[in-house]
């Protein structure tokens, strides 16, 4: 994926219309301005069931009024979206559609030739149901999905930091390129390129103990790596060099301020610690392979605590196969 997949295209903003979403509209408008994209103001009306069950037989007490209620719902959504549209400084369209949330958003994105889907963390009636919708889209969508929590209202602030995780595999190549291009387009302060080693302090100590035993048994020469601190420092040094080499392969990589970091431990926990130290605006970019495996979330609690507690916007992009 390259940034050209978004630049000049449409950005779909899914609005729940249940509460004040001013921060979300401001955030997406600033994104559209930077990427020269049209904004698709979208509201999905949930399917309305006109029937109930009396035993096994369906009854239709609202059957006659169903079309009227549909029309009223759509008119109300159109009015609310029109009011939002009046305050915009970017080209925009309004789409109201009755469908299930996920299928409806995906269909609008396809028909509107969107390059990005933006949602709030409370897209549905409740925060957790909203996150469920967002996570489901992150997992299954062919589009990049950006989730914006309360407290984020602009993406073009000069002190913005873009976080790009790298598992040091080819699956991350397009994600690095995308993060770099987005950081340049948004004039971010810098890109933080990081790797998290799945090793705890106990794991490192076990490794160094094995080295010590090998030295004692005469199977290895005297080795400074038998010391925990030395071993950790050597791993950090080599990983930083790997990150540097991988990033510098990107065309135009020299035009952006890049900071590199190496962490140890459980990915979600360590990244949350890292983010909590940064009180500036931040955007986290992941490849889908970072977050999801066929049967589970590979990063555990992410992005729940990061989005809700730390106010970080999170984008998940389709990864290289």
TrEMBL record:
Q: Which residues form the UspA domain?
A: 9-149
Task: Return the similarity comment.
Answer: Belongs to the universal stress protein A family.
* Protein name as it appears in the record: Nucleotide-binding universal stress protein, UspA family
Top-level lineage group: Bacteria
Q: What SUPFAM superfamilies does the annotation carry?
A: Adenine nucleotide alpha hydrolases-like
Q: Which InterPro entries match?
A: Rossmann-like_a/b/a_fold, UspA
Cite a single Pfam family from the UniProt record.
Usp
């Amino acid at each position: 994926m390259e940034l050209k997949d978004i630049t000049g295209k449409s950005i779909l903003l899914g609005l729940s219309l249940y509460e004040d979403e001013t921060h979300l509209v401001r955030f997406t408008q600033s994104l559209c301005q930077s990427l020269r994209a049209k904004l698709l103001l979208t509201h999905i009306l949930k399917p309305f069931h006109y029937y109930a069950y009396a035993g096994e037989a369906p009854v239709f007490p609202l059957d006659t009024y169903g079309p009227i209620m549909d029309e009223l719902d759509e008119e109300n959504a159109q009015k609310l979206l029109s009011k939002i549209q009046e305050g915009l400084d970017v080209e925009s369209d309004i789409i109201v559609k009755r469908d299930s949330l996920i299928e409806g958003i995906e269909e609008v994105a396809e028909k509107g030739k969107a390059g990005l889907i933006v949602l709030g963390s409370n897209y549905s009636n409740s925060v957790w149901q909203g996150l469920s919708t967002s996570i489901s889209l992150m997992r299954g969508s062919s589009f990049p999905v950006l989730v914006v929590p309360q407290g984020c209202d602009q993406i073009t602030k000069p002190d913005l930091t873009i976080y790009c995780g790298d598992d040091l595999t080819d699956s991350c190549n397009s994600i690095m390129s995308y993060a770099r291009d987005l950081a340049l387009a948004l004039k971010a302060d810098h890109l933080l390129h990081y790797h998290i080693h799945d090793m705890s302090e106990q794991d490192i100590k076990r490794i160094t103990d094995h080295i010590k035993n090998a030295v004692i048994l005469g199977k290895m020469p005297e080795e400074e790596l038998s010391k925990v601190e030395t071993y950790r420092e050597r791993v950090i040094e080599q990983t930083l060099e790997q990150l540097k080499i991988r990033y510098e392969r990107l065309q135009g990589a020299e035009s952006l301020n890049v900071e590199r970091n190496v962490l140890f431990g459980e990915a979600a926990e360590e990244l949350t610690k890292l983010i909590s130290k940064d009180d500036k605006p931040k955007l986290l970019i992941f490849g889908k392979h970072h977050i999801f495996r066929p049967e589970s979330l590979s990063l555990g609690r992410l992005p729940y605590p990061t989005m809700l507690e730390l106010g970080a916007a999170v984008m998940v992009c389709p990864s290289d196969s």
